Amino acid sequence: MIRTDKNVFILETNQTAYAFRTVETGVLQHLYYGCRLPRAEDYDSAPVILNQPGNSLVDNDGRCREDLLQEAGTVGWGDLRAPLVDAMLPDGGRSCDFRFSHFERPEHALPEGLPASEGGETLKVVLKEHTHALYLELYYTVFEDTDVIARWSRLINDEAETVWVTRLMSQQLDLPAGEYDLITFRGAWAREMDMVRQNLAGELRWSSNTGGSSNRCNPFAMVCRRGCGEEAGEAWALNLVYSGNHLGIAQVNAYGSVRLTQGMGELGWQLMPGEKLDSPQAVMTYSDRGFSGISQHMHPFIKKHIVRGAWRDRERPVLVNSWEGFYFKVSHRKVVQLAKNARNIGAELLVLDDGWFKGRSDDSRALGDWKADPKKLPDGLAVLAREVNEQGVRFGLWVEPEMVSEQSELFAAHPDWILGHKNQAIGRNQYVLDLTRPEVCSYVCDSMTAILSGADIAYIKWDMNRIMSDVFSPALPPERQGEASHRYILGLYGILDKLTKAFPDVLFESCASGGNRFDLGMLCYMPQVWASDNTDAACRSHIQWGYSYGYPQSVLGCHVSDSPNHQTLRRSPLRSRFNVAAMGLLGYELNPGELSSDKIQEIREQVEFYKAHRRLLQFGQFHRCPSAAGECFTMVTSPNGEEAAGVHFVWENQPNPQSVPLYCRGLEGEKTYHLTSRSTPPRITDFGSLANYMSPIRIRSGSLVEKAADRFVKLPQDALELKASGRAFCQRGFYPIQPFGGTGFNGATRLMRDFDSRLYLWTEDAE
């Protein structure tokens, strides 16, 4: 709900409120962002700073802006903090002074050419530069149901001359003095979303200059009061609906107050007379229940207001991806056989990854030539898709449309279509296509349209496997090169908008070497993202934990791969690889036809279990639960509280470990739940020579005797079964079965290796 009380603007959600006012001079003063308060008068309590402390400056109305909490900071006028807007006026000056003009309540107001959240109630506040015909429009959209507020900015030039814009941020949040921490999520390829917590002092930044939202630093960030934790304390979260370079700045000024600004990266934008420039939309939320409260706001917001289309609320299929099964060694026969293998384990979708198009024998050639390789697929994609469908699974395809190889027909015909100069730093032997050029965008759109309309394709994995090194467009004049990065993203969004509208039933998955473009902008077009190229279960448990702070599991592509893992060479139990992947959108990154019969049977049972609980696992409310060092415990709960699932993952097995309870989250206190554990039977081979302690005959590791014993001797399987109230599970916790400690093994012993896990299921007890 949005309401105005005299000169005060109040934006209220179910649990939170955001307030600001206009002072007499027209400057917007921020008042409050926190829990919802009972009365409108409760929000209007912040002071207007009139005195001139020390060598601070005052404006021409006698007010000091250096420590004034504001909505739209600018360069000059005594405010030394990062501005929302930085523009050079026609006379060369940068001291813009935007003051309140009027406000409106538009029914629909979205940034042009950019994705944005759907729904909500919007407030538009118009500011005018004091001495120039330059207007700053601030848009606020309130999503009451999810306790999220979205912001974006529009700059309009009604001057007769050009205005140069170097910064137009999406949101600014000024917080009163206090002790705060900044939490960002950093990393690199194959190790995304590492949570970094820093005491907020001076100036700290989270940003990307890779051309994408970046695996180096995700746009999602949090600021919290010192001491805030998972379930208690005040926290504010920020994110950006944008897929390009981004910039977030957290500053503590000389008086202890904090300014947070976030938006697209630095610009060099020529704003011509009569033109306007829109920032991407940004989103923010507040929680007085720690980081858990942040997630419980952001997750439903993304599911309801960011993800859209036919797949928004639809359960996603279990898939098999060909990449780690046979890499570039693609053939029609192998793909059809893989489809049979996929059907055999219960998968519903087969994805043909890289290597299918003309001349693509390795990663040095053929990108841009989007036609089936006649040597590998002599009958083409249409026949292949039909034969895959005849096996009872749908057909999906990998593409990388934004790239071109130097060794390709496209590059030979259009060497000027690349972004940057030919002599530049190269990644994966490929160049980035210049999407600032309309003719390049048309080529990409036409190529993808031909593929999607020429065969029965149910799924597209849209990849982008390099960052940008030379952001230069020959199609732009020298004075507009500072616009190239943003214009590239606008070109990309135009392509995605056309394709997703033309093929609304296709399930698109965004990928950029894994999580290099994991952002809300891509999620507006593609309802899921490949979270990381790293499929190692131990790494993924950490990566997915990081994503969970700002993103729901319903957008995370998570696959079970072979062991040893292809990124780390780590060996881990198949059950553990499944348990981690099950807390997202399940797929298998392997060739089931190369597995033993017992492994195939285990996977069949995994897929059957996942399908039976798919709605819960994909769309349930996610919870990070308390756990001991070296372990993690996560849960998902159904909206009605009737069902829950949880995974307890252990990175390193300890000898003679102490018994530590696991504490649940999200269960309804008064309901009674029946808890069961899901495991797989232990094997003789799990024990090595220790099997001789129990065996009446000598068993040598790797011998035929061991193989025979492994096949016919059935060892007892640990199985936990408990009944308790939801409050008991959350407050008292429950104890997993005692792990094996070197002596004694029976059905009451839990056999845990390094990087092992257990999956638990809670169902409401009907009695």
Q: Tally the helices: what do you get?
A: 14
Helix proportion range:
10-25%
Shape: globular
**Strand residue content:** 25-35%
Q: What is the name of the CATH superfamily of the largest domain?
A: alpha-galactosidase from lactobacil brevis
Would you report the number of β strands?
Answer: 37
Based on helices, strands and strand pairing, what is the structural class?
alpha+beta
CATH fold-level name of the largest domain: Beta-galactosidase, Chain A, domain 5
What's the architecture of the largest domain, going by CATH?
Answer: Distorted Sandwich
Give the terminus-to-terminus CA distance. 43 Å
Report the radius of gyration as a whole number of Å.
28 Å
Averaged pLDDT: 94
Low-confidence stretches: none
CATH class of the largest domain: Mainly Beta
Query: What characterizes the major β-sheet?
Result: 10 strands, antiparallel
Number of spatially distinct domains: 3
Description:
The protein has 767 residues and is α+β, with helices and mostly antiparallel strands. It folds into three domains: 2-306, Beta-galactosidase, Chain A, domain 5; 319-617, Alpha-Beta Barrel (TIM Barrel); 622-764, Immunoglobulin-like (Sandwich), CATH 2.60.40.1180. Helices cover 19% and strands 29% of the residues. It is built from 14 helices and 37 strands. The strands form seven sheets. Strands 6, 7, 8, 9, 12, 13, 15, 16, 20 and 21 form a ten-stranded antiparallel β-sheet that branches. Strands 22-23-24-27-28-29-30-31 form an eight-stranded parallel beta barrel, surrounded by four helices. A six-stranded antiparallel β-sheet has the order 32-33-34-37-35-36. Strand 1 and strand 2 form a beta hairpin. Helix 3 (332-345) packs parallel to helix 4 (380-390) and helix 6 (438-454) runs parallel beside helix 7. The longest helix is centred in the middle third of the chain and has 19 residues, at 484-502. It is globular, with a radius of gyration of 28 Å. The two termini are 43 Å apart. The model has no long low-confidence stretch (mean pLDDT 94).
